[in-house]
Design a protein that fits this description.
Order of helices and strands: HHHHEEHHEEHHEHEHHEHEEEEEEEE
Number of strands: 15
Region (Disordered): 1-62, 89-141
Radius of gyration: 32 Å
Biased composition (Basic and acidic residues): 26-62, 89-113, 123-141
Shape: elongated
Structural class: alpha+beta
Strand content: 15-25%
Subcellular location: Cytoplasm; Membrane
Domain GOLD: 355-484
Family: Belongs to the patellin family.
């Protein structure tokens, strides 16, 4: 199982009895009434939003009922100071008491001691009024209600009517099949874990410089989901493997780094109905360490547990590419323990189908070149402003040419080209407009096996001709783009 199988095994939250704290009934009723009436019933939909909708008008009756109930429970818990464990409040109180103890000891030392056998002075008896006053002084101070509890930057108090509140609550409800009590307990445990793990400050930590190639965020898919790539093949390097998993301390550091990466991805999301509220994960298993590696199994189990318990519904789809045979066997063993909802998000891809599968979810200009796309790291040539990509279909047993005119002398032409499935012959030429001039061979004919980027600067008007010969018995999809730069901009 990989670290990024965020929802690998559904673990139900334990049913926990809530402790009722005295809160004035009118305040509760007003708050709950405000929560349920303040939320809009209908919102204009976005036709491009294809995941389960977060628009209230799209919810089923039972789902809407569960959401209203969860809002009410959350409102009551926040106003009653029962959302977080009592132990946390006790710890804070205990630390304050410890600070007061030294001061009390100093005061005691300053009290006059009896000398020469003289009896100590008797304390003056307290009057009934003074005794009552002292009793009132030791009464429990009034609890301060924290109305500003947030999760991923979204205020959780429902009566604040913060944009994104319902979206967050729906994540927990969907993770627990709209069982309100289980969703509420999951939310409570997530908040408690974040406090213990110090997750809210994790983005400020310097983590994982040595293992940044193991996982990283890069681009978006066709629906705008930020993409997280997890590259396990780099862990085949024994030195890097030991740096990452060699000791318990290093595994714990890896765990914090992986949670930090998840939090960085969440920073790119938009928690509002119609917004992008989840990530796309791509797990490259090429040359990955097998299941015999004990250290990675331990770290994986810990990471999967934390991610599935504390980041519900944050992965739109989990795509596993370059999957080895042993992983299929492992997945078959795990499959009975997975819910249908979880399994529906998994996509397993053989090496020969990687580019074809990724194209279903990601545009070719956002797919990295190592996976057959056109995206290059720190690309200085092409950007979104340069326009899109053109697709050309070459029929079985036929040849197609792409002609790019270059009429101005001194123009530099840059182009990208990739073929889905390869197996074609490809060549590049410059054909001058003057029939008396010679054709210049830019690239001799060769079998394509990776995306092409090339450039040519002309000394006379003409055109660049790219020739694709498909000799196999099935059609091929070609994707290409180009741009020109004159002398002043080259």
């Amino acid at each position: 199982m990989t670290v990024e199988s965020v929802e690998a095994v559904e673990v139900k939250a334990e049913d926990t009895q809530m402790t009722e704290v005295s809160v004035s009934l009118p305040e509760k009723e007003k708050a709950v009434e405000k929560v349920n009436e303040a939320k809009p019933r209908t919102v204009e939909k976005s036709s491009s939003y294809r995941e389960e909708s977060n628009f209230l008008s799209d919810l089923k009756d039972n789902e809407n009922k569960a959401l209203i109930e969860l809002r009410s429970k959350l409102e009551e818990a926040i106003l009653g100071n029962t959302l977080l464990k009592k132990e946390e409040l006790k710890k804070e109180t205990a630390s304050e008491s410890k600070e007061e103890e030294p001061a009390a000891a100093e005061e005691k030392e300053k009290e006059p001691e009896a000398t020469d056998g003289a009896a100590p002075e008797e304390a003056e008896p307290k009057t009934e009024g003074e005794d009552k006053q002292s009793c009132s002084e030791v009464e429990k101070p009034e609890e301060v209600v924290d109305r500003d509890i947030t999760l991923w930057g979204v205020p959780l108090l429902p009566s604040k009517c913060a944009e994104g509140n319902d979206v967050i609550l729906l994540k927990f409800l969907r993770a627990r099949e709209f069982k309100v009590n289980e969703a509420f307990e999951m939310l409570k445990k997530t908040l408690e874990w974040r406090k213990e793990f110090k997750t809210d400050s994790i983005l400020e930590e310097e983590l994982g410089q040595d293992i940044s190639s193991v996982a990283y965020m890069n681009g978006v898919d066709r629906e705008g989901h930020p993409i997280c790539y997890n590259i396990y093949g780099v862990l085949e390097n024994e030195e890097l493997y030991q740096k990452t998993f060699g000791t318990e301390e290093k595994r714990n550091q890896f765990l914090r780094w992986r949670i930090q990466l998840m939090e960085k991805g969440i920073q790119k999301l938009d928690f509002k109905p119609g917004g992008v509220t989840s990530l796309l994960q791509i797990n490259d298993l090429s040359n990955s360490p097998g299941p015999s590696k004990k250290e990675i199994r331990i770290a994986t189990k810990q990471a999967v547990g934390l991610l599935q318990d504390n980041y519900p519904e944050f992965v739109a789809r989990n795509i596993f590419i370059n999957v080895p045979f042993w992983y299929y066997a492992l997945n078959a063993l795990l499959s009975p323990f997975l819910t249908q909802r979880t399994k529906s998000k998994f996509v397993f891809v053989r090496p020969s189908k990687v580019t074809e599968t990724l194209l279903k979810y990601i545009s070719v200009e956002e797919i990295p070149v190592q996976y057959g796309g056109l995206k290059r790291e720190k690309d200085t040539e092409f950007s979104i402003e340069d326009g899109g990509v053109t697709e050309l279909v070459v029929k079985a047993g036929s040849t197609e040419t792409i002609e790019i005119p270059v009429p101005e002398v001194g123009t530099t032409l840059v182009w990208d080209l990739t073929v889905l499935g390869w197996e074609v012959n490809y060549k590049e030429e410059f054909v001058p407009a003057d029939e008396g001039s010679y054709t210049i061979i830019i690239q001799k004919g060769k079998k394509m096996g990776e995306p092409v980027r090339n450039s040519f600067r002309n000394n006379e008007p003409g055109k660049v001709v790219l020739t694709i010969e498909n000799s196999v018995s099935k059609k091929k999809r070609i994707f290409y783009r180009y741009k020109t730069k004159n002398c002043s901009s080259s």
